[in-house]
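Figure 2 data, in text form.
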Amino acid sequence: MNIVPFDDSNWKKDHPTGNIAFQHMLKGDPASPENFMYILGRQDADFAMPRHRHNFDQIRLPIRGDMNIGRGIILREGEVGYFAEGLAYGPQEDPLGDAAPGERLQLVLQFGGASNYGFMSIEQRRQAWAELSKIGKFVGPHYHRPDGSVEWGLNTVWEHVFGVKLKYPRPRYKSPIIADPRYFNWLRLAGATGVDHKYLGAFSERGVWTEMIRLRAGAAWTSTDPRSRRLLVALSGAGEAAGQAVGRLTAIDVGPGETLRLSASSEMELFLIGLPPIEIPAVELEEYDLEELPAEESAA
């Protein structure tokens, strides 16, 4: 188990635009296709990104401010968005407007999807950025080679790290899936007095799920799962787990088979993401693209 308190001095400028700062809270094993990176993103300036996609899954929760997903879709503060691997979104235009730099905050989990393509760690990306910058240059999300050719930066970095072309799985869902927790009922968790949850849904054949957990002041909750990793972030309140204080924006990583025992000194609300293991099919699906966006997406 890993418990990481919020540290307001630990921001990194790891986004290619330079306008987003990240706090890296939890991370997985880069050698595993189930690798993940859980970050808190802070918007420091006007933000824009062209329409794009990734070869991994994402779950996003804006905890202060909204996020423009593109084409008229807005992920509002407090909503939970699931972005399937291979699904294009954008173009994004997010001017700060009336918000102060650093005011907008968003939880973002990026993780290897059911296609078993894996997820590149931030350490691997940083090393590749440094090495590739000695040959060409990164301009926003694109990489410019000395011969004048321009490539999508993630494709270039992936091939540099792994020695193979990046494969984009064809998306299982036609658009991002957005849940508004306000309209879900709090249901009692059996065997835990003063503990309720809102189950928001599960996605892909992997069965990744999201839910909200609420502990009343003085309540205690025990979570165990023999198969699945559970990632939690405290959205409000205070308590204790494994002898450590848990406060707002504390992140907790509970591995398969591990037991989390959490007690609340004041009413707590937590956001939970469950990550079951990736199961390898008997026959792997050969449905993927090598280009960043299909021609019809680019034209649209």
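Caption note: The mean pLDDT is 94.
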